[in-house]
């Protein structure tokens, strides 16, 4: 796949074709599935809990999972390279999120680090079946959301990911993260960290998402997104009300005006005509990834965008806000709309917010 050409086409106005079969919802891993069981006591890395809080499906249809996915199609597949100090014996395993089982694939290579490395790849057919040529950016964003879910699950279990690989250097795996065994006498999860209950109950809110969030919430979510995205992309928020504007997090700890006027109707048109966005309380936008970006940068920017929006969505819900990720964008050249050079600052991902209906989840994820 020529990713540069694919992204250019996805950003255009061409509509996707008719739906095609999505194929199997999980890989056909070889051999029998092995149940994941909680560790018998403190010490080993709890892979049962890690996967249950991040990637496991809550019902056999596969729709209800704790990580958002475009169209609830869930194209991301996970393999685990397990070393010492885990609730599974060392080895490489394929994960089945529908049955919450692992399949042993091979022994662990010599020198495998203690803990577990989760490697994420995608099965494009699951997403192209509905989104057609618009699928490739969505596949990368979904992978970033899966990394965020795993990262938050590790924190909820008082483990700390030692390394996230979101550099876009390879397309197989697209991304990975390593989680070491919990340190002896590790402290319980920080009260500010998402809990197991938060992660299991998280769902994308159903539109409409009305009511403008408090400025302090907007600032904190913008700052979180920028930090989680490792500075690779820009962040701002579109708000309406009596003083409609695009706002960004300023260096003084407050919001500053990037542009005046209500951008939400234009955002609704750019987001595949999703009219409800024009009435959202706020829309956080992450943008950049110029048209001349090479494949590695495209992967890097979209992976970081998915990861950062995933982190921001969970933080927003913990603040009592309604939140829904928005991943499909056409003609969304925000930089040019703000008077800058064209094709330098495209909208990559977004998070729509409101102050109501946070506890009214939909049946699938967005």
What keyword list fits this structure?
6-stranded antiparallel β-sheet; alpha+beta; single chain; globular; 7-stranded antiparallel β-sheet; 366 residues
Give a short summary of the structure:
The protein is an alpha+beta fold and about 375 residues long.
Description of the molecule:
- It is a single chain.
- It is built from 9 helices and 13 strands.
- A 7-stranded antiparallel β-sheet has the order 1-4-3-2-5-7-6, covered by helices on one side. It has a 6-stranded antiparallel β-sheet with strand order 10-9-8-11-13-12.
- Strand 9 and strand 10 form a beta hairpin.
- The longest helix is centred in the C-terminal third of the chain and has 24 residues.
- The radius of gyration is 20 Å and the shape is globular.
- The two termini are 25 Å apart.
- The C terminus is likely disordered.
Percent of residues in beta strands?
A: 15-25%
Mean pLDDT over the residues: 93
Strand order of the largest sheet: 1-4-3-2-5-7-6
Largest sheet: 7 strands, antiparallel
Radius of gyration: 20 Å
Portion of residues within helices: 25-40%
In whole angstroms, the N-to-C terminal distance is: 25 Å
Low-confidence stretches are 358-366
Topology, pairings included?
Elements: H1 3-10, E1 34-35, H2 47-52, E2 76-82, E3 91-96, E4 101-106, E5 116-122, H3 124-131, H4 135-156, E6 163-165, E7 175-179, H5 196-201, H6 215-228, E8 234-239, E9 245-249, E10 255-260, H7 264-270, E11 282-288, H8 295-318, E12 322-326, H9 334-337, E13 346-354
Antiparallel strand pairs: 1-4, 2-3, 2-5, 3-4, 5-7, 6-7, 8-9, 8-11, 9-10, 11-13, 12-13
Helix pairs in contact: 3-4, 4-8, 6-8
């Amino acid at each position: 796949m020529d990713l540069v050409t694919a992204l250019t086409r996805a950003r255009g106005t061409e509509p996707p074709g008719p739906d095609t079969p999505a194929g199997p919802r999980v890989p056909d891993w070889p051999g029998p599935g092995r149940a994941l069981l909680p560790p018998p006591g403190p010490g080993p890395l709890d892979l049962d809990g890690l996967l249950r809080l991040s990637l496991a499906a809550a019902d056999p249809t596969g729709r209800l999972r704790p990580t958002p996915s475009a169209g609830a199609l869930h194209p991301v597949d996970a393999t685990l390279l397990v070393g010492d100090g885990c609730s599974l014996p060392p080895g490489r395993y394929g994960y089945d999120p529908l049955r919450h089982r692992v399949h042993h694939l091979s022994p662990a290579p010599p020198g495998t680090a203690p803990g577990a490395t989760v490697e994420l790849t995608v099965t494009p057919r699951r997403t192209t079946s509905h989104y057609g040529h618009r699928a490739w950016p969505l596949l990368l964003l979904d992978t970033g959301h899966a990394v965020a879910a795993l990262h938050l699950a590790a924190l909820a279990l008082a483990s700390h990911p030692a390394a996230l690989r979101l550099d876009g250097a390879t397309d197989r795996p697209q991304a990975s993260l390593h989680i070491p065994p919990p340190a002896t006498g590790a402290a319980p999860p920080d009260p500010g960290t998402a809990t197991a209950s938060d992660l299991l109950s998280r769902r994308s809110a159903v539109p409409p998402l009305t009511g403008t969030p408090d400025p302090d919430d907007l600032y904190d979510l913008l700052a979180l997104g920028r930090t989680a995205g490792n500075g690779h992309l820009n962040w701002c928020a579109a708000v309406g009300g009596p003083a409609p504007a695009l706002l960004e997090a300023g260096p003084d700890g407050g919001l500053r005006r990037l542009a005046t006027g209500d951008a939400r109707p234009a955002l609704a048109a750019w987001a595949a005509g999703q009219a409800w966005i024009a009435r959202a309380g706020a829309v956080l936008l992450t943008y950049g990834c110029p048209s001349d970006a090479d494949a590695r940068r495209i992967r890097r920017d979209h992976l970081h965008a998915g990861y950062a929006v995933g982190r921001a969505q969970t933080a927003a819900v913990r603040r009592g806000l309604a939140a829904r990720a928005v991943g499909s964008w056409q003609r969304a050249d925000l930089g040019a709309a703000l008077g800058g050079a064209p094709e330098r600052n495209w909208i990559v991902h977004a998070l729509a917010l409101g102050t109501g209906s946070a506890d009214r989840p939909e049946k699938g994820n967005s």
